[in-house]
């Protein structure tokens, strides 16, 4: 289950993207449903739409405009997203959004309940659907249920600022397996459980709450490493890539690729590039920075504001340092095909992946996978990206430190070939060992493991938890009732 479902075209081919391909392959192997939002908005509740392709049925439901405003644009993207990315300053707490998030999740659960069979394994993806298992358990389903969070989980002092925090946290204990991108995120989560006296540790990765044992683990997601390398090799004939190379002449290319989001550090990255040109004038007219940033969540005011800020930052840099025959920053606000991206990565001497906070960031892995073994580029990577735990041979930077990031850009541009090759080989070894297929298989294998622990009496929770749901219901109003604990 995922928020958006990549329903195949009539040709039967799944949507592009490593995650979609991996999950589709797992479903094709075992058979089953891929369930979620159709992406469409309707005026009233409509029946499920089911599309069958091979052994997979794609079941989607529409949402009303109110659902989208409260569940998606509201609580998910203006409360959960900023809190999980450590941005309390951007967090908005609105009782109707909180109520809408749980109301829509309950609606998804009711629809999913009509599809479930007793032996089905349920794998739920991302922050949109945290309460799903709790609602399904309330309906009596005892299926194996796993949850994977694709974004970070913040430490207790940050995550506890989330509206209905205890309800959200309790909802995660209803799964059999809760997976995170990094060990740090998993540890942040388990410390939250301990702080709230919500679960008791049974073993290294197993916890008990309300007499049920669940598992918590880190499952860093990978990419289709070999396939992406092949696409990068073949992209030399891509028209966009050819035009880019011609326009670059003999200049080095630095590339950044991000969805427009405040967590990506795009403005800080352009600022660091500007600082590099200021401090190292010998680099002027010798390097071009290409930032590809498709628009995202334009209905959220914070994103519209950021779009203007980034464009202004790029324009300021070009106005100060550019010349009639050189544009320092090329800023593109549209999507580029996967093949074109692979070719552009391969052409770039430096890949800039400097989010302020990120669950994993697959752009970092794609950039490394696309490089030539004989002449690889250099990855400049934020230490606050989940990928930094694996790709520690990159040049790791603090994106908040503008001068240090500027120095890292120069170091990357001037790095000797042998050092570039050594760093690239070390990262490629990890990318080949942990592909997206390995990630998918590892999670499903862990979810299939039944607990064998002998349980002691359930942990006595803090009194605050017992009052959390009634008080939350009173705060959110009669349209929201929370969910009962089994």
UniProtKB/TrEMBL annotation:
InterPro entries: Glyco_trans_20, Trehalose_OtsA. One of its GO terms (biological process) is trehalose biosynthetic process. It catalyses: D-glucose 6-phosphate + UDP-alpha-D-glucose = alpha,alpha-trehalose 6-phosphate + UDP + H(+). The keyword Glycosyltransferase applies. It holds the Pfam family Glyco_transf_20. GO terms for molecular function: alpha,alpha-trehalose-phosphate synthase (UDP-forming) activity. Keywords: Glycosyltransferase, Transferase. Its EC number is 2.4.1.15. Pathway: Glycan biosynthesis; trehalose biosynthesis. Probably involved in the osmoprotection via the biosynthesis of trehalose. Catalyzes the transfer of glucose from UDP-alpha-D-glucose (UDP-Glc) to D-glucose 6-phosphate (Glc-6-P) to form trehalose-6-phosphate. Acts with retention of the anomeric configuration of the UDP-sugar donor. Belongs to the glycosyltransferase 20 family. Homotetramer. This is Trehalose-6-phosphate synthase. It comes from Alsobacter sp. KACC 23698.
């Amino acid at each position: 289950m995922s928020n958006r479902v990549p329903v195949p075209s009539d040709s039967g081919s799944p949507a592009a993207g490593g995650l979609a391909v991996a999950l589709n392959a797992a479903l094709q192997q075992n058979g089953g449903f891929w369930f979620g939002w159709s992406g469409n908005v309707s005026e009233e509740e409509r029946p499920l739409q089911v599309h069958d392709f091979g052994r997979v049925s794609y079941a989607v439901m529409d949402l009303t405009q109110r659902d989208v405003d409260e569940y998606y644009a509201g609580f998910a993207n203006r409360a959960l997203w900023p809190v999980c990315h450590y941005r309390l300053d951007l967090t908005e707490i609105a009782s109707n959004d909180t109520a809408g998030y749980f109301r829509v999740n309950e609606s998804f659960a009711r629809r999913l309940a009509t599809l479930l069979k007793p032996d089905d394994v349920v794998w739920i993806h991302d922050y949109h659907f945290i309460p799903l298992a709790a609602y399904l358990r309330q309906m009596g389903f005892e299926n194996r249920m796993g949850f994977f969070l694709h974004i970070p989980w913040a430490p207790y002092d940050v995550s506890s600022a989330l509206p209905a925090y205890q309800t959200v946290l309790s909802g995660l204990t209803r799964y059999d397996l809760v997976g995170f991108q990094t060990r740090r995120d998993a540890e942040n989560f388990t410390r939250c459980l301990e702080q709230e006296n919500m679960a008791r540790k049974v073993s290294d990765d197993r916890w008990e709450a309300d007499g049920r044992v669940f598992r918590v683990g880190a499952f860093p997601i990978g990419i289709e490493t070999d396939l992406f390398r092949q696409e990068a090799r073949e992209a030399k004939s891509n028209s966009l890539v050819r035009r880019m190379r011609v326009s670059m002449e003999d200049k080095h290319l630095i590339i950044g690729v991000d969805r427009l989001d405040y967590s990506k550090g795009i403005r800080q990255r352009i600022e660091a590039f500007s600082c590099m040109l200021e401090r190292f004038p010998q680099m002027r007219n010798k390097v071009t920075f290409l930032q590809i940033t498709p628009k995202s969540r334009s209905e959220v005011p914070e994103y519209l504001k950021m779009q203007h800020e980034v464009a202004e930052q790029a324009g300021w840099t070009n106005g100060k340092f550019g010349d009639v025959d050189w544009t320092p920053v090329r800023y593109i606000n549209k999507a580029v095909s996967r093949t074109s991206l692979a070719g552009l990565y391969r052409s770039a001497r430096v890949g800039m992946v400097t989010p302020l906070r990120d669950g994993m960031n697959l752009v970092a892995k794609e950039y490394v996978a696309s490089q030539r073994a004989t002449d690889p580029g250099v990855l400049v990577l934020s230490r606050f990206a989940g990928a930094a735990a694996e790709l520690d041979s990159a040049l790791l930077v603090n994106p908040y430190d503008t001068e240090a990031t500027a120095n890292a850009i120069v170091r990357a541009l001037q790095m000797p070939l042998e050092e570039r090759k050594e760093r690239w080989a070390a990262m490629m070894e990890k990318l080949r060992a942990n592909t997206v297929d390995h990630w998918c298989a590892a999670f499903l294998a862990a979810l299939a493991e039944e607990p064998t622990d002998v349980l002691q009496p359930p942990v006595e929770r803090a009194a605050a938890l017992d009052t959390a749901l009634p008080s939350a219901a009173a705060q959110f109003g009669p349209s929201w009732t929370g969910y009962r604990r089994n």
